[in-house]
Every structure is written in structure tokens, then in C-alpha cells.
Amino acid sequence: MNSAPFAFSVSVIVPAMNEAENLPHVFATLPSWIDEVILVDGNSTDDTVAVAKALRPGLRVVTQTRRGKGNALTEGFAAATGDIIVMIDADGSTDGREIHAFVTALVEGADFAKGSRCAPGGGSDDISPIRSLGNTMLTKMTNRLYGTRYTDLCYGYNAFWARHLDALDLDCDGFEIETLMNIRAAQAGLVIREVPSHERSRIHGASNLHAVRDGLRVLRTILREREGRVGGVRLHQEHAGHATA
């Protein structure tokens, strides 16, 4: 185990498909004390896997069995061995140097550290007006339906204690996995703390995200979870560092 500022092991999950050009930038931001990096390869046709292995000795590679970011993350989570799991993107939009803040939130008592571009200190160089509007509306809907106080629902930079994987019970394949995690973490009564995060623009290539299509998938997830899972749980949430019950 590396010399680290924390007494817990940390696994970082990086889902990637054809991100060979971006990985040098992404991996350069990862702290040296991370115990495990797992690249989940979506059957890339470029040199993603070879570049990742060259950049990170000891890297573990998981080859995705289906398609979609949700499936990639789920398979990466299942392979992780660390006490803490962190999920980042392979396109350069998430800064690995922020991992310290996410892990600190967990060590200080949170069960789930949720990145937010909208919390004080956060921001985005990438989000379009239509995506921002959709995210705001979906966030408000989720807060109203589930009693949460999220500021940024549709953001994929998160960290959590591995022991809570069963409570999250993830079962979706697409970009809506981030919303599903946020809802199920709240319904499971996990202590959630938002961590300010700055989203950067993708460095190379084009995003697979489609605002309307994926926004509708998120909406369906919000409504489906409300119909099927609400009831009987006490919510504990920390919002911007303050706890509510």
C-alpha cells in the first residue's frame, strides 16, 4: 500500500472507450497515493488499453461485457478491492487532484461524496445552456420527490465507501447511472455530502452524451424509482457540509 494521507485504500474506476489521446492528461492528475486504478474498456478500437498500461504500471483492466457508462461503472465497481471507490471520466473533464477532497469527505463521516458543479467553489467549462437547464429542472424534481437537497443531479464525479455497493443495488447501463446512485444513496439513508468540483472541457474527441435522449432516460429513472422504491427510509443528507435528517 502506498504512503498516503489516509488510512484507507482507494480504488479509482475509469470507464473508457477510444480515449487514448486523453488518458495521458487524466492519469497525470491522479495522486500517487491511490492504491488501485481500474480501467474499464468499452472494447476500444484505438490504443486506449496499451496507453493506459504504459502510463500506469499495475493498472487493472476490465473489459466491458455490454455497452453504456452504467454497465462500465458497475463492472468496475465489482472488480474494485479498495475501501473507498472513486469514479472519474476518461475524457479529461474530471480532475484527479480533487480526489483528496472526495476522500476527505468520506473519512470525515460521509457515506457518499457527491460532486457538484453548482456548489460554492464548483463550476463547469463544458456544460451547454440546454444541458444546464435540463440538469436544473431534473435536480429540482428529484429534491421535491425525494426530500434531498442536491445542487447538481447529473454529474458523474462521485466517491463512496465500497461497503455500500449492495445498498446502491445498481442495475442500469446508461448515463442515468449517476442519477440512480444519487437517488438510491438517499433512499438507503446514507450520509451524503456534496463536494465542489470544477468540470473541464473534453480534451480530444466527441462526447457520447446526447442531451435530449439521455435527459429522458434520467427523467424515467427519477419517476421509476419514485414508484418502486419510496417508503419507510429515514434520509440523512449533508448538503454543502451541513447535516440534515
UniProtKB/TrEMBL annotation:
Record domain Glycosyltransferase 2-like: where: 11-160
UniProt xrefs under CDD domains: DPM_DPG-synthase_like
Organism superkingdom: Bacteria
Xref: InterPro entries: Glyco_trans_2-like, Glycosyltransferase_2, Nucleotide-diphossugar_trans
Pfam families: Glycos_transf_2 (PF00535)
SUPFAM superfamilies given in the database record: Nucleotide-diphospho-sugar transferases
Family statement drawn from the similarity comment of this UniProt entry: Belongs to the glycosyltransferase 2 family.
Protein name: Glycosyltransferase 2-like domain-containing protein
Lineage: Bacteria, Bacillati, Actinomycetota, Actinomycetes, Streptosporangiales
